[in-house]
Amino acid sequence: MNDILPLTEEQREIRRVAREFARAEIAPYAAQWDEEAHFEPSIVRKLGELGFLGMLIPEEYGGLGLDTTTYLLALEEIAAVDASTAVLMSVHNSLPTQMILDFGNEEQKERYLRPMARGELLGAFALSEPDAGSDAAALRTQAVKDGDCWVLNGTKAWVTSGTEAGVILAMARTDTPHERHGGRGISAFIVTPDMPGFHVGKKEDKLGLRSSPTVQLVFDNLRVPAANLLGTVNAGFTYAMRSLTGGRLGIAAQALGIARAALEHARRYANERQQFGKRIRSYQAIQFKLADMATRVTAARTLLYATAAAKDRGEHVTQYASMSKLLASETAMFVTDEAVQVFGGYGYVKDYPVERLLRDAKVTEIYEGTSEIQRVVIARELYT
Ligand code: CAA
């Protein structure tokens, strides 16, 4: 298919670099890592060397200082080969690095952004808790000031890259249980695993994204230096929500990459597979599937990159980011499901990659806000 996006030479070049890297360094191993639920640490180093872990960080802090479109193009390429590597890249670039960049002080930026851009410190985001998922403002982890430290107690859930992270942006309550203020009583802290009281808890055994470690983090009298409070007290929920707008674009690019890969596998297979004496692409039943898949992929791509361009122009894109994620993740589920159908029995086994793509697609409808929460955000914005 022709590319209908108006891309610059630089954007095409970075997309090419990402595509070649993904095909050479990730594609040969992705199925095995998935099978073994193996996280491959060398991938973080290699992504760091390419600058892919500091794509949005300005050059003055050691990043590539690229625009959102270029970052998402690279992310889409990685996701088309391995969604587990893509989520690591998306969370790191969109959430912890962006939060420090947007809301951190100069000392925090100097200290953390350079090693994060190089991939020496991988970032994670800890908002959810076992009983606070969609209702993120109901989180219960408590932070209490004690001299020159904040002491945190609680359990964070569903933390992507949690076993590997060197920097975790963790949200905790700084109001007391007697004076709950919802989102207004929550602060953001820069946590590192060497802080006393930091523990990695349960590792999740997942349907998809199996080579991306997802864990609980347990804070047991975790002592966080006061200097690691991000921005101002009680503003952390707003910081998290604002960053999630960018995060949702990252997950949309991941979903788009998964969908695009499934379409491409199905397109090629339909061209080779013979039944009833003809290639199956000559049957209208298969043609209509491929046409619907390609149309939805193009619609998801068009909305995502239009939103990215609007974000880079400084426009308010909360609603469009939610629409992008909703459309791309539902497209990923539709397209991967149809791809398995095109493959028939071969789609249901591990000889071909489409069963992995179907398993990986599902979580894009769940994390960084479920499809239902995206609809809540979209509907709310219709009245603002
Ligand atoms: N930008 C800026 N501020 C925002 C905002 C946004 N997009 N969304 C909310 N806020 C602000 C509000 O203005 C409000 O501020 P005030 O109190 O000063 O008025 C405050 O945040 C609270 O907002 P709401 O009243 O809207 O909060 P709510 O409790 O009704 O919840 C919600 C809103 C949209 C449902 C929110 O809870 C939400 O997005 N839930 C989904 C959670 C989520 O996406 N979790 C992702 C987990 S992270 C993850 O998955 C990462 C990973 O590792 C893959």
Question: Would you kindly provide a written description of the structure presented here, covering whatever features stand out?
Answer:
α9 (318-343) runs antiparallel to α10 (354-362). The model has no long low-confidence stretch (mean pLDDT 97). The chain is an alpha+beta fold. The strands form 3 sheets. A 4-stranded mixed β-sheet has the order 1-4-5-8. The chain has a 4-stranded antiparallel β-sheet with strand order 2-3-7-6, with helices on one face. The protein has helices at 9-36, 41-50, 68-81, 83-94, 96-103, 106-118, 236-272, 284-312, 318-343, 354-362, 371-381, and strands at residues 123-126, 142-146, 149-160, 167-173, 186-191, 198-203, 214-225, 229-230, 274-275, 278-279. A hairpin with a 2-residue loop joins β9 (274-275) and β10. The longest helix has 37 residues, at 236-272. Residues 91, 125, 127-128, 134, 136-137, 158, 160, 182-184, 237-238, 241-242, 244-245, 318, 367-369, 373, 376-377 line the site of acetoacetyl-coenzyme A.
Ranges where pLDDT stays below 50 over 5 or more residues in a row are none
Q: What hetero molecules are in the model?
A: acetoacetyl-coenzyme A
**Cα radius of gyration in angstroms:** 21 Å
What's the pLDDT, averaged over the residues? 97
Based on secondary structure, the structural category is alpha+beta
How many beta strands in the DSSP annotation?
Answer: 10
What is the share of helical residues? 40-55%
Order of SSEs: HHHHHHEEEEEEEEHEEHHHH
| Basic shape | globular
Task: Give the distance, in angstroms, between the N- and C-terminal Cα atoms.
Answer: 38 Å
Strand content: 15-25%
Question: How many helices does DSSP assign?
Answer: 11
- Biggest sheet, open or closed, and with what strands and sense? 4 strands, mixed
Strand neighbour order, sheet with most strands:
1-4-5-8
